[in-house]
Design a protein that fits this description.
Blueprint (H helix, E strand, L loop, with lengths): L1 E5 L3 E6 L8 E6 L8 E12 L5 E7 L4 H12 L1
Antiparallel strand pairs: 1-2, 2-5, 3-4, 4-5
Length: 78
């Protein structure tokens, strides 16, 4: 999927399939800062299909890593 929104507690992901709530996920977020992808674990809190081919899924992080979010914040400030 493609991350469309990220916050301190979770992400919204555009996906071709919907997932059941409470489904555990391990994510590798690639951001364009020249470093390795960020590895995060979480679980699905909502998932819906849209009228288009893709749907959206909301994922809450189990244990957010502050160092990972500092990388995201630096990218957003550019």
């Amino acid at each position: 999927g493609v991350c469309t929104d990220i916050g301190a507690g979770g992400v919204s992901i555009d996906m071709k399939q919907s997932l059941d709530p409470r489904t555990p996920l391990e994510m590798w977020l690639e951001i364009s800062d020249g470093f390795e992808p960020i590895n995060l674990k979480g679980r699905v809190v909502w998932s819906r299909n849209q009228a288009t081919e893709s749907g959206k899924t909301g994922v809450v992080f189990d244990c957010p890593r502050l160092i990972a979010f500092s990388r995201v914040l630096k990218l957003l400030r550019r």
